[in-house]
Amino acid sequence: TFSPAPGSLQLTINHDVAADLDSSNAFEGPEKLLEVWFAPGPDALPPSAKENGLKAVTPSTWEGMLDMVNCKVLSIVKSDHVDAYLLSE
Amino acid sequence: SSMFVFPHKLILKTCGTTTLLLGLRRLLRIAAVDAGFPFHNAASIDDIHAAATPLRVFYSRKNFLFPDRQQGPHTSWKEEVRFLDDTFENGSAYLVGRMNADHWYLYMTGPPSATLTPPLTPRSSNNGSPTRSSKIPTGIVSPFNGISDAQTDETLEILMMDLDPELAKQFYLEQASAVASERVPAQAQEACRAAHESLGDIDSTVDVFANCGESDISGQQADDSDVTAAEAMTTEGHALGTVVSETCGLAQIYPVSDYPDARIDAYLFTPCGYSANGVVPAPTASADEQGNKAAHYWTVHVTPEPNCSYASFETNVPSRQNGRRASDTIHQVVNIFKPGRFTVTFFETKNKVAEEGAGANGVGVDKRMDDVKGYRRMDRIVHEFDDYYLVFRYFERE
């Protein structure tokens, strides 16, 4: 059983997307996996990068890119080190 | 599908007929414009082609079940490689495993020890696809070298086919609802439904949710009096996803007893299907001098339909954290789904392997990764790259 630590890991749900989601068509399971590194580590960002690097980018900006991929944001867990987006095709 | 955004890297995993690579250029552009990472393929950020220079790119996938349904550059591996070769300068493509069985494709760019190259001047692109001159260099070793977790990085991915039909039923709305109703009082369900109808936009849930006793809904038999509307502020898909995470055993892979700060975000699709992300902050013991603790992720996606059943599990939580070995994770995950066949890919940075005193022959040497009860290991293939070892294994049920 999890009890979220207040403030450290925050879950945000996109109710609009979750409300009318329908995945009744069986679909292709095996995923496409892309991993892109821009710096060796979180504490080795280049001087020009924003303080928090990619984590400084807003969800709505990522949504523009995800639209091109045919994905919607269902929910996000934000933490100090990583933001985890749960997506739906 | 899932996306994980770290300050220095981004992982995007999409299933179905999504067109992941069509988002790649935009991703690189956002990294330059919105996150400030350096670019070398244009004279100015105002040039619409200006895109951040990645240090390293990995793109991989298993062979598709229904390749003819794919769209865009994903209609074939050849097309994907062509697209990536048109985008990056020094990429390499690999096929790992049996051509006449489940195999795995990998495309990667890596840092040749190059020095900084001057920005290129792009010619105008035709029909939007990148032209050779607007290719993006990768792997540029630049002033931002420093302490990095790239030197201690590993990723484990388990791709499972022909899931045990009985176990796969857990990922259907009908069965999950039946299980949930045994575990969640009716009033909480009603509160959830009512709250859901009254909710408007995404932001309003942020603060309220921060204190949500969501796990109360799914994990414990809360009595009616202590479930508040705030606690019910979830959706049916998320609430059922949380129940399924508990009942199928996934929530026990990184149990709260070992990882008190961990968090799962799970969703059960209608009529079936399941996705979950886990964020696992490292235990306090592994914080550095400044008290910085890393965080890792795991993600699962399940397609339970019998004619195309499939489940994937991926994590970069370091093996040996909390004494947990990669083989423990494999055994536990395979036991949840009991697939007919599965592949295991294990990426490990070389210096990590060196730390553990294993040489190239010792990569992924944890012998228990080869011995999975009830399965026969058909292949074990080791690829050695500049900075990584990759071990690919393929198992079939005995």
Helicity level of chain A: 10-25%
**Which strands sit side by side, in order, in the main sheet of chain A?**
1-3-4
Mean pLDDT of chain A: 86
Oligomeric state: heterodimer
Termini distance of chain A?
29 Å
- Rg of chain B is 23 Å
Largest sheet strand order of chain B: 7-8-9-10-6-11-13-12
SSE-based structural type of chain A: alpha+beta
Which overall shape of chain A is indicated by the principal axes computed on the Cα atoms?
globular
Which runs of chain A of at least 5 residues are low in confidence (pLDDT < 50)?
1-7
Query: Helices and strands of chain A, in N-to-C order?
Result: EHEHEE
Provide the helix percentage of chain B: 10-25%
Question: How much of the residues of chain B is beta strand, in percent?
Answer: 15-25%
- The value of Rg of chain A in angstroms is 16 Å
- What does the overall shape of chain B look like? globular
* Overall pLDDT of chain B: 80
Biggest pleated sheet of chain B: 8 strands, antiparallel
Contiguous runs where pLDDT drops below 50 for at least 5 residues of chain B: 113-133, 141-147, 198-232
